[in-house]
Write a structure and sequence with these properties.
CATH topology of the largest domain: TIM Barrel
Number of strands: 18
Strand content: 15-25%
Order of helices and strands: EEHEHHEHEHEHEHHEHEHEEEEEEEEE
Radius of gyration: 24 Å
Distance between the termini: 15 Å
Strand order of the largest sheet: 9-8-7-6-5-4-3-10
Structural class: alpha/beta
Mean pLDDT: 89
Shape: elongated
Length: about 350
């Protein structure tokens, strides 16, 4: 699969790659910038930061980070130290946090690149404090409090111990105290209000510092969730912030291909491996050269008794039928206008 930024008609291909790939992943950077500005406007006066972990959710951290910076984003979150080092070369002046914390012996690497660890355990706090003292530097870090999701983060007893040992946090500036919502995409869930209460209670035991709780959906859920900074991730890239309700983001990604072949089959004939889908009428089936090799989920395979995924052909939905193969899917184009159900149609 080839990627194309902003121009699906002229995909940029690496030397030696075919000029006509089976699939092109089209990334709309103008939509990305629009989504950032929408979240930033909604979150104001809180700052809107961007999560660009996982190579900017697989879209390429280089063009994504540059676009977000130009749209006004100044604070970024990544998961791993190596991601932070890559991002630092792209954005020398950005504030960059490492969400997965401080790995053993990584303090010097983070310090040299002006990266801020999000400390998630007493051991990490102690290591960062010790390094700051040993090098006579006061380098900022974030602190992750566990409020309900039970992944990374200091527990309530950990926070009590920190409160009882203030010298640990005296060694470095506490730049941010954060936690993470369990069900931000369902704003009426009781756990959300419970997390806000826990977060406020625990951060009150710590030195004053900016606070952050909200992810993409939380940033749209009202001022009670926003605090000083929101961390927007999937919503930037076109993912729906809420599990229900109207969309407020523009799609950033489209997977494009063309019909490779269209064939007629009779009622009662099956399609694909194991014949999981059987035509109930005489049908037209189109083959598209996209499959799980390209990242198209095999779980979107369909059977006669299962709901269908679909593709869009000139604005018309065509259901995926049969199993997803490594390099092709099959779709039912029986109900499409005849001039669209032809080889080469996008």
């Amino acid at each position: 699969m080839t990627s194309a930024v902003d121009d699906a008609d002229h995909p940029e291909t690496a030397e030696g790659q075919p000029a006509f790939p089976g699939a092109v992943l089209h990334i709309d950077l103008s939509a990305l910038a629009h989504n950032y500005r929408m979240f930033a406007n909604e979150a104001a006066p809180a700052e809107c930061a961007a999560a660009v972990k996982g190579d900017a959710y697989g879209l390429g951290i280089g063009p994504v980070a540059k676009t977000l910076w130009e749209a006004g984003c100044k604070t970024f979150f990544v998961a791993l130290t190596q991601e932070g080092l890559t991002l630092r070369t792209l954005l020398p002046d950005a504030v960059i946090y490492i969400l997965n914390g401080l790995h053993p012996d990584a303090a010097g690497t983070l310090a040299n690149a002006a990266l801020r660890p999000v400390l998630s355990s007493l051991e990490e706090v102690e290591e960062w404090a010790a390094w700051c003292r040993e090098t006579d530097q006061r380098l900022p870090a974030g602190l992750h409090i566990e409020s309900g999701i039970n992944r990374l983060g200091l527990t309530a007893p950990d926070v009590e111990r920190l409160a009882a040992q203030p010298k640990l946090l005296d060694a470095f500036p506490l730049a941010l105290v954060l936690s993470h919502l369990v069900s931000g995409d369902l704003p009426d869930e009781a756990i959300n209000a419970t997390q806000v209460e826990r977060f406020e209670m625990l951060r009150a035991k710590l030195p004053p510092a900016p606070a952050s709780l909200s992810n993409s959906p939380g940033s749209l859920s009202g001022s009670a969730f926003r605090f000083d900074l929101v961390r927007v991730g999937i919503g930037l890239y076109g993912g729906e912030p809420y599990a229900v309700g109207p969309s407020r983001v523009k799609p950033v990604v489209r997977l494009l291909s063309r019909l490779a072949q269209v064939r007629a089959i009779a009622a009662g004939e099956s399609v694909g491996y194991r014949g999981t889908w059987t035509a109930e009428r005489d049908s037209k089936i189109a083959v598209i050269p996209v499959g799980y090799y390209d990242g198209y989920p095999r779980s979107l395979s369909s059977a006669s008794d299962l709901p269908h995924a679909w593709v869009s052909i000139a604005g018309h939905r065509a259901p995926v039928v049969g199993r997803v193969s490594m390099d092709m899917i099959t779709v039912d184009v029986t109900d499409l206008p005849e001039h669209l159900a032809v080889r080469g149609q996008e």
